[in-house]
Amino acid sequence: MPQGRGSFLIGQLWKLVSAALEDRREPEKVNYVQKAILIMETEYMSDLSIEAIAARLNLVRSYFSSIFRSQMGVSPVQYLIHLRLEKAAELMVRHQISPTVAALTVGYTDLSHFSKSFKHKYGKSPRNYVKAARK
Q1: Largest CA distance in the chain
Q2: Same-domain check for residues 68 and 88
Q3: Whether the predicted model's global pTM rises above the 0.90 cut
Q4: Residue 1: per-residue pLDDT
């Protein structure tokens, strides 16, 4: 019995250490995601890539994408695309910026790709979206 009790206590100690280490790692994951979101929200208009964000956080891209998806429910690429499209929609409707200028302002260099992505998200072309919003 005394040997069994020692093994039991050592096992419990390892569980405690493991739980403490996992609790310590979780805030880091959240912190990485929060930092990435801050980078995206302040630099979405630049030529920003997921690789660059991961590198700035000193993470491997695949690990960064994994923790981002687990926290946010979408990939970092999807998050950045949706952020850019929302900002473009806001520019067009609130500030009466043309779709072309809005696309360039939020970081799209390929206007065709912008239009397709916008239509996929909002169900309307950028021009039709603006027309509908102004009615």
Answers
A1: 81
A2: no
A3: no
A4: 45
